[in-house]
């Protein structure tokens, strides 16, 4: 298998399928659904963290990297899942959270007890005049430093204060990290997704300075000085010693050049990476917790085009996606999940699945699962969202105003239990799921399969097409200029074939002349009109 052959399906483990009816998804639940995933046409499953955790950030706060979260099952359940997946020619990709551990991890606990060895596994620093060592802010709000009175030291946490950043400068720490990764590779795990991996290289201590411009400190630790060295070492000491292992880095706020270095095969770092700029196009003035009244497809297209062309030129590789567990559902975000449910689900699927790179599908998008549309603040669960709520309240926003914002932006939107059928709790569980999901449009797999237009079947069709076609996997990409922001056109081509992907990203008809005598490969509308595109029409033609 080569990286271009992968079609990855991300499972938010807590929300996929609950086999023991405790309201929480689990490994056996996933195992039951392997045949379903095979039918869809994927060949890799990325599992969000499955390790022992106090669950402050739903598993992205790891207490023990060698143990399975008991909510999800046991180590033997995991081994069985690996085996079952293998039978169906599906590989498992695990989420490696190596920028921080939970403060419940035994390293951190020992550090708190005063062990210098373990304090050096983290960043414990003296403050300045009763203030934290720097003015950096945590990505979940507030200072990035927490004070420990009995030590008179502050520790760094770029995320919640229960997620302490670990110190990759320390060789002993790195050796522990490699041991963890190898433990899972030995079991037969064939993929690794590295959480915020480009943040692991912090500056030398003498360079820990206040961020005078943005107050967030990002520029000091994003794509830091030793990042390429650490990744090369990680590659050499772990996954390069195993056959057919693929790696993807979550590359937070990186730039074109750094990204290209991380994923260019000659550098022996990572196979591919995620970027987020195309999704940030609904941040008003770069501010996530703002309400975006309209969609900015001009910017959205520009970002995709710039990144695709640059990475093509530099032989690097993008992991393409529109939804994941940190994002609202893209059908609700960019499409129209009420009036054009089928058309917008399929249009955006075509948009990213045929780009140059590896597609990452997020569970539930194959039936067009939508945002939560909550009516009460208390219905939200996510730590980032609840922190944002407090911050917005302190800025004197009313609950109604805040609800509008978080209904649009909260990560919980993408974490609803999978709606399998029309039973109570949609067949996810027999008991009330951990996260409330009203499913206002009654979207379930059962209903989708009964529809004349099934989104699931459309995904099957386009995945088959991509997988059987060398041009989509390895061909070049180019973008066709239009003077209409709502129309997005790109081509995939090689010596033999040339395909055009033509998309109307809006809910209005758009004038566009399609050449006659072309071969239509995909069309998500019944008809084709040669003079205009229907709302959310997506067509692929062979030129
Ligand atoms: C990125 C993960 O995707 C997100 O869910 C998590 O909260 C942060 N990293 C911290 O691990």
The total of beta strands comes to 22
Estimate what percentage of residues fall within beta strands. Answer: 15-25%
**What spatial form do the alpha-carbon principal axes imply?**
globular
Indicate the structural class: alpha/beta
The CATH homologous superfamily of the largest domain corresponds to Glycosidases
Domains, number: 3
Assigned CATH class of the largest domain: Alpha Beta
The CATH topology name of the largest domain reads TIM Barrel
Q: How many helical stretches?
A: 17
Ions and ligands: 1-deoxynojirimycin
Please report the distance between the alpha carbons of the first and last residues: 29 Å
Rg, please?
Answer: 23 Å
Which percent bin holds the helix content? 25-40%
Describe the biggest sheet? 8 strands, parallel
**Can you give the mean pLDDT?**
97
Give the strand order, joined by hyphens, for the main sheet.
13-12-11-5-2-1-15-14
* CATH arch. level architecture of the largest domain: Alpha-Beta Barrel
């Amino acid at each position: 298998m080569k990286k271009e052959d992968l079609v990855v399906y991300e499972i938010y483990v807590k929300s996929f399928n609950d086999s023991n009816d405790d309201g929480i998804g689990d490994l056996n639940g996933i195992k039951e659904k392997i045949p379903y995933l095979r039918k869809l046409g994927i060949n890799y499953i990325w599992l969000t963290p499955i390790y022992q955790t106090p669950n402050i950030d739903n598993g992205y706060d790891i207490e023990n990297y060698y143990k399975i979260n008991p909510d999800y099952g046991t180590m033997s359940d995991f081994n069985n899942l690996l085996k079952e997946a293998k039978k169906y020619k599906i590989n498992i990709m695990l989420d490696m959270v190596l920028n921080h551990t939970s403060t419940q991890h035994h390293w951190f606990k020992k550090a708190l007890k005063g062990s210098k060895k373990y304090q050096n596994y983290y960043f414990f620093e003296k403050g300045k005049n009763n203030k934290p060592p720097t003015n950096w802010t945590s990505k979940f709000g507030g200072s990035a430093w927490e004070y420990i009175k009995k030590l008179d030291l502050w520790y760094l946490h770029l995320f919640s204060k229960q997620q302490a950043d670990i110190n990759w400068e320390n060789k002993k720490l790195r050796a522990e990290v490699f041991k963890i990764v190898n433990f899972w590779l030995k079991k037969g795990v064939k993929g690794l997704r590295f959480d915020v991996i480009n943040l692991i290289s912090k500056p030398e201590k003498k360079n820990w300075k206040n961020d005078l411009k943005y107050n967030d400190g990002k520029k000091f630790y994003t794509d830091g000085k030793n990042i390429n060295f650490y990744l090369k070492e990680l590659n050499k000491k772990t996954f390069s010693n195993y056959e057919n292992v693929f790696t993807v880095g979550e590359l937070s706020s990186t730039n074109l050049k750094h990204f290209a270095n991380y994923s260019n095969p000659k550098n022996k770092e990572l196979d591919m990476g995620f970027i987020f700029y195309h999704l940030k196009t609904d941040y008003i003035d770069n501010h996530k917790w703002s309400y975006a009244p309209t969609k900015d497809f001009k910017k959205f297209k520009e970002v995709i085009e710039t990144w695709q062309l640059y990475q093509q030129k530099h032989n690097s590789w993008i992991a393409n996606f529109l939804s994941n567990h940190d994002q609202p559902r893209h059908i609700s975000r960019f499409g129209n999940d009420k009036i054009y449910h089928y058309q917008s689900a399929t249009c955006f699927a075509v948009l990213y699945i045929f780009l140059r790179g590896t597609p990452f599908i997020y569970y539930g998008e194959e039936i067009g699962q939508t945002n939560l549309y909550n009516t009460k603040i208390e219905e939200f669960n996510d730590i980032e969202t609840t922190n944002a709520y407090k911050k917005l309240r302190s800025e004197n926003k009313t609950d109604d105003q805040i609800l509008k914002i978080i209904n649009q932006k909260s990560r919980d939107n993408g974490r609803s239990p999978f709606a399998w059928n029309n039973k109570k709790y949609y067949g996810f569980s027999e008991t009330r799921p951990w996260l409330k999901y009203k499913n206002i449009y009654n979207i379930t797999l059962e209903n989708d399969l009964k529809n004349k237009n099934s989104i699931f079947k459309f995904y099957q069709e386009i995945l088959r097409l991509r997988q059987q076609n060398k041009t989509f996997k390895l061909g070049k990409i180019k973008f066709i200029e239009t003077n209409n922001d709502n129309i997005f056109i790109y081509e995939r081509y090689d010596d033999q074939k040339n395909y055009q992907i033509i998309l109307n990203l809006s809910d209005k008809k758009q004038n566009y002349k399609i050449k006659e005598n072309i071969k239509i490969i995909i069309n998500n509308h019944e008809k084709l009109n040669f003079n205009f595109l229907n709302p959310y029409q997506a067509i692929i033609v062979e030129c």
